[in-house]
Amino acid sequence: MRSLPIYETIYVIIVALVCLRIIYDTRSTTKTVAYMLLAIFVPIVGILVYFSFGINYRKRKIYNKKLVGDNNLEKKIQDAIVHYTLHNLERKNPAIADNKELARLLLKDGSSPLTANNQVQILVNGEQKFPEVLKALERARYHIHIEYYIYEDDETGRAIEEVLIRKAKSGVEVRFIYDDFGSRSIRKKMVRRLRDAGVKVYPFYRILFIFLANRINYRNHRKIIVVDGKVGFVGGINVSNRYVNKPNEPNDLFWRDTHLRIEGPGVLYLQYLFLADWNFCADDHLEPDSILFPKAHILSSKSDKLVQIAASGPDSDRPTILYSLLQAIFLAQEEILITTPYFIPGESIVEALIVAALSGLKVKLLVPGISDSVFVNAAARSYYSELLKSGVEIYRYQKGFVHAKTMVTDRKVAIVGTANMDYRSFDLNFEVNAIVYDEAVATELTNIFYEDLKDAEQIDPIRWEARPWYYELTEKTARLVAPML
To answer: Do 329 and 429 fall within a single domain?
Structure first.
């Protein structure tokens, strides 16, 4: 028997060591198998792909998000958060009464308080969002905090830029975080203009050529605005012209998205997330004070919506957003309505939806009919058969591209945020979702969902199963590498 040449022996040893590293380091069994197959069957390139995209940074915290240096003070704050949340859990609110376990999960896993006395406004598309954003920015007295995955140097971006510059020159503290990959169009000219005007601007995770692939993989996908610690915006809409649908320009692709405007104590956790991100990327040491975190009696709005924030990323111990979505599905008793542009959810979400549908709940999923990624769409379709067989209704949006990331359960809980229902949002991206425990808000979002279904095509389960075999083969092949997308 011919012995392997020395260089082949060395390569086999390297592949074996890489596979052991993958087994030890990767939480998801599906991802473990995908990366091992890649490392074994795609020589050299497969190993490079793993080290560029596959390393589990949840085990190697990218940054420490601890804002309070004094351990005694931190314990007092944590105790106050727990006491405040438990008090709000006892409110006579049907939405929270049926979903206490979800609120407790976010309290225990992310120290996210359940806040009361909030005003919540659903903003449909950029046409509703950006006028509200501009109004809020104009009213800023102390500070403006803005953090975006995509911020473009176009008409929409420059309209906000003009207000930021004017406010900075008038003495308002303006801090701006942008993702260095998603917002690459503003890196040079706009960033320079903002800095020259006194706006403090930093990329979240600067892309350096030598670390290019790895840093692109861990993206800050959050979209957060906080004004004076009192008014906040969060949701799926980035800052770009594409999110504004203009009736006089019918040839442009219609962009369907959802955002929230929150006023009240619910904004404080958005503020906390921003400041943790800011201290990391700006190498700053901002700590809580009465300007950044106004007292509850100052924040109380005329409304009484219960709001809680779910956030996770490579800095968190667990995939909090994934867990919160699973818990919301488990707690639903009648209806689950999901809108997502990218549906590569993994087995846990799929099985939860199947169990819900088989248990008699109405489960409806709205996904794009027109997508910006053929490959991702193919991977998503690989999940449809098992969902359809269990009774899940799947609709494909036809009017344009649906980019909203929302879920409503039982017309009681409304979830709106930045997280797609895919591996990337659950494991790799820095994401944030707002959860509103309120029948009026949840009913409004439910009505919006059913309006969207009027512009969607329902998949017929029988016709779907009758598709040519090579469609299914292509989709399952795409699904095999989906954990690496």
So the answer is: yes
